Amino acid sequence: MPDNYLNEFALVRETINELMDQTKTILKTGDYSNYKQVMKRANDCKDELSTLRERLIDSMQSSDKTSSYKTALIYLTVLQESQEMLSVMRHQLRAAGKLLK
User: Could you tell me the pTM of the whole model?
Assistant: First the structure.
């Protein structure tokens, strides 16, 4: 994976890990006091992933280098799966909150 992909994803990965830890704590303890903050941060992270995806797709369409195309596709998949993972996390958190009401 090229350094530029690794560097731009590093911050997003860190945010995702923190969100997963916070979600785990919320679900484990049942303390939903920071629920809204976690959900907002997850939405912001999803938006960031969308921006990265769009930028990558634009780059892939304008590039004529077929050698880096496979790597770009792999990175695109990582971005998409990360976004999906955040969606699932948000749904679990929301569902658990409704069950406790």
Answer: 0.86
CA distance 85 to 74: 16
Separation of alpha carbons 85 and 81, rounded Å = 6
Position 67 pLDDT exceeds 80: no
| pLDDT bucket at 44, cuts 50 / 70 / 90 | very high
Tokens 């960031």 correspond to: 48
- Phi/psi for 67 (5° steps) reads -70, -30
Cα 51 to Cα 12, 22, 65, 101: the distances in Å are 12, 24, 22, 35
Distance CA(63)–CA(96), nearest Å, equals 45
